[in-house]
Amino acid sequence: MALRLMYITNEPEIAQIAEAAGVERIFIDMEYIGKDLRQAGMDTVQSHHTVEDVQKMRQTITKSELMVRVNPIHEASDVYESSKEEIDAVIKAGADVVMLPYFKTKEEVQNFIELVDGRAVTLLLLETPEAVENIDQIIDLPGLDEIFIGLNDLSLGYKKKFMFEILADGTVERLCMKFKQKGIPYGFGGIASLDGGKLPGKYVVKEHYRLGSTCVILSRSFCPLDQIHSLEEFSYVFINRVQELRKLETECEEYRRYFVENERAVVDKVRFICEGL
């Protein structure tokens, strides 16, 4: 089964191109509470989209699902509204999937599931060591639809040099096997273009297939907007790269022997990268 592709944007023209290329989920990212502190100095996307972006995107896309990452569970303050108000607002604006980031406890997840109340798909973003410690209790909760491992923040939590270290050291695999046993769909991380990034996307895609993943985020470097000069060029590059990815997926389906060789290559390449950091 092909990976479900997710792409972060609040720009309607870009979303339409992604949808036409076969991206199944357009991703509005409203998370900002605490994110700037824990990712300080990192080359990560901090979008801080809004409910208005959700409304706008709902009117833009016709086939793709609309996914919204809200903030971690929180109470209202002078600066922001409560989780209940935020989740109610994004669902009312048209979210099909609501993602909870940076949770640590079973109680936070239970609260999230109750706040969504069956009105949208519930998707957890697992990205703290504390959540990993509590994961057996968390995945027993009814009403949990999907789970995604966030490599950036989870790697920070484990004080790793490179986010794919937890893919190479077996951490991601151990978690995936727990989800698989529970019948919970899961995915992890983001991919650059197949030949781009410190760890090229082609290696990461094969790991998704080896581990039974169902979804992945197309990262900012999959088709970097700052290196493209027009929507026409973006459309051409983006669509071609998605087609290349789908072709590789077909090979993964046909040649399962790739996985053992690819696992070894990932371990070797990550070790080499970390030695240079």
Description:
By secondary structure, the protein is of the alpha/beta class. Helices cover 47% and strands 14% of the residues. It contains 13 helices and eight strands. The protein has helices at residues 12-21, 35-38, 51-58, 83-93, 106-116, 129-133, 135-138, 151-157, 165-168, 171-182, 201-211, 231-254, 258-275, and strands at residues 4-8, 25-29, 65-69, 97-100, 121-126, 146-149, 186-191, 215-218. It has an eight-stranded parallel beta barrel, surrounded by seven helices.
Question: What series of H and E elements makes up the topology?
Answer: EHEHHEHEHEHHEHHHEHEHH
User: What is the helix content?
Assistant: 40-55%
Outline:
globular
How far apart lie the N and C ends?
36 Å
Main sheet overview: 8 strands, parallel, barrel
Q: Count the beta strands.
A: 8
**Overall pLDDT:** 93
Strand arrangement across the biggest beta sheet = 1-2-3-4-5-6-7-8
Strand content: 5-15%
Question: How many helices in DSSP terms?
Answer: 13
Unreliable stretches (pLDDT < 50, length at least 5) are none
Radius of gyration from CA coordinates: 18 Å
The chain-level structural class is alpha/beta
Short note summarizing the structure:
It is built from 13 helices and 8 strands.
Q: Could you outline the blueprint of secondary structure elements for this entry?
A:
Layout: E1 4-8, H1 12-21, E2 25-29, H2 35-38, H3 51-58, E3 65-69, H4 83-93, E4 97-100, H5 106-116, E5 121-126, H6 129-133, H7 135-138, E6 146-149, H8 151-157, H9 165-168, H10 171-182, E7 186-191, H11 201-211, E8 215-218, H12 231-254, H13 258-275
Parallel strand pairs: 1-2, 1-8, 2-3, 3-4, 4-5, 5-6, 6-7, 7-8
Helix pairs in contact: 1-12, 3-4, 11-12, 11-13
